[in-house]
């Protein structure tokens, strides 16, 4: 399904019960080793200014740990990246919704997935670039050293977010895809 602007509407999954996913943390040392030995895919996805970069928020933060994004002003947190033209992400809130916008490097078939843990109020944006490697014991790439197979950014949602009624859209550009996620507020009278 595409929106009127030519964007593909993504399904937001709420029933992901994968045991142990994201249980192996990506340490800073392992991250630097990954970038130094990795190919173009890793460098494109984890580059400075990317939503998946562990350094997006000014210091190292494992992207598989949930980050309380909307507790921070984008203008403040991203000021240094914006000043050098390296920022590919933005977020904001209106009276009706929380909004996340991000350019994503096109890697492989760019299979971006959005998951929401409704009870825990956590949203995950992930994708897999390597499907040929051996995966974790349970067969799910997210349960082991996930960075060898793909990427993730987990975000804590605000208390008044209504993740069950969220929308996500993906549109393709040349070297990047553009992702927009809209999470309505529970007490909002207007749907965006």
TrEMBL record:
Residues 90-171 form the SHSP domain. The gene is LOC108826872. InterPro entries: A-crystallin/Hsp20_dom, HSP20-like_chaperone. Keywords: Stress response. It comes from Raphanus sativus (Radish). This is 21.7 kDa class VI heat shock protein. Gene3D superfamilies: 2.60.40.790. The keyword NADP does not apply.
